[in-house]
Amino acid sequence: MTPVLPDGPLIDEAVGRLVRPYTVSDGRTRATSHFTLVTVVRATGAQTQGAFGLDHAQVLALCERPVSVAEVAARMQVPAAVVKVLLSDLAEGGAVVAGDVPPPAPGHSARPDRDLLEAVRDGLLKRL
Question: Given 3-state DSSP classes, what are the helix, strand and coil percentages for the chain, each rounded to the nearest 5?
């Protein structure tokens, strides 16, 4: 399945999302596969089994490189539960797989940067 992105936006600046999340997931509220917010998913490039809609195509396009479920939800501006349902459909069709976090690039430490983490913490505390 080649992802086809919409000609127009699914989000209107003044009104918000044009399609309700409940509609995107066909009324389903539970995923059939186990995904957490930090689960990393990626597209397989394989032909998919079954018919998928526009939102499935958007998820698939976002998964061309390894990406977390939380990032897909944030980029699509839909609840994570909806993304998990869509990812479950795609996983069952063989279009995406869940995997491990990719290793750090050569020359980068696997340990998080303490200064960066403290700056994020301080920024969050200021917003509260």
Answer: 40, 10, 50
As a whole number of angstroms, the distance between CA 83 and CA 26 comes to 12
Of 85, 39, 45, residue with least CA distance to 64? 45
Question: E strand or H helix at 68, and its extent?
Answer: strand 67-68
- What are the pLDDT digits (tens) for 22-56? 555 555 555 567 888 888 999 998 877 667 778 88
Question: In the chain, which ranges are continuous DSSP H helix?
Answer: 21-24, 54-62, 69-76, 80-92, 114-127
Digit-coded pLDDT (tens) for 56-85: 889 999 999 999 999 999 998 888 888 898
CA pair distance 37, 79, nearest whole angstrom: 11
Q: What is the C-alpha to C-alpha distance for residues 20 and 76, in angstroms, rounded to an integer? A: 12
Alpha carbons 92 and 6: distance in angstroms, whole number: 24
